[in-house]
Amino acid sequence: MNLFTFTAHFDSEEACRNHFKEERDKVGVVCKECGHTEHYWIKSRWSYECKKCRHRTSLRSGTIMQGSNLSFMIWYKTMFLMTATKKGFSSKEIQKQLGMKRYEPVWAMVHKLRKAMGNRDARYTLEGMIEMDEGYFTVESSEVEKSRGKRGRGAAGKSPVSVMAESAQLEDVETGEKTSQCRYFKARVLESHHADEINDTVRESFDEKSIVFTDDSTSYVDISDYVELHFSEKSSEKLTKETLRWVHITISNAKRNFPGNYHKIKGKYLQMYLNEFVYKLNRRYFGEKLFDRLVIAGITGL
Ligand SMILES: [Zn+2]
């Protein structure tokens, strides 16, 4: 969706609401009281009414717009901005573009959207051949010190992040040359850098038939308990450039992207920024459909 199609489609609050309702109807509404899924639509109240128990569900209720006083139009413009460029915008910049007086509601909205992006991606597990490694992201150091104390091997001001990438090895039948292609990614901030946490990440993120490639750092010790095979190689330039190629490209792209976009990242919010980065990366071929996808994530991703 570009600026012209956006303004043509969403020129009023009602147009945004109608679109949101259409998308919500496709997903389906479940009654909070009785679990019934058939509803009447009461347009005068912008609410659904359960056909069984008459409980009313507002259009916003159960979506990320629940409890928000901002108009649908503001949400839609924000979702447009967040999907308009590969690079992304800071909340401060979005506030400026929206012409909003107060920063806090914009910040809260943007973070709800980032959370929804993460929830959406959490529905999928990676499969096949998976690269896994850690990157250290610069965050406001006071937060790191407060949240992690002196534990963990990351230096103060650096937050460890586990980055995972599905990569398929392709071999050219004529030349024998091998190339790897990537599909989906995940990134998860590690709080303690404990082996348990890495194991949880593996269990939650990977299909059990996966084959996982890592370096030989000891925290990965139990990975083979949760997947089909685990290969670890001694850290080397070859490992970084070949076996763990996509993970390393992604880590350096994210590291380059964040400081350009955001003034400072607090440790406790790093996951939110990663959510947005990975969500867009995983949908890099969606083009103009990315906006609609984010609307759906906003409906289902609470
Ligand atoms: Zn009901």
UniProtKB/TrEMBL annotation:
Identification of the protein by name: Transposase
Organism: Draconibacterium orientale
Transmembrane regions: none
Entries under InterPro entries matching the protein: Tnp_ISXO2-like, Transposase_Zn_ribbon
Domain ISXO2-like transposase: 125-282
Domain of life: Bacteria
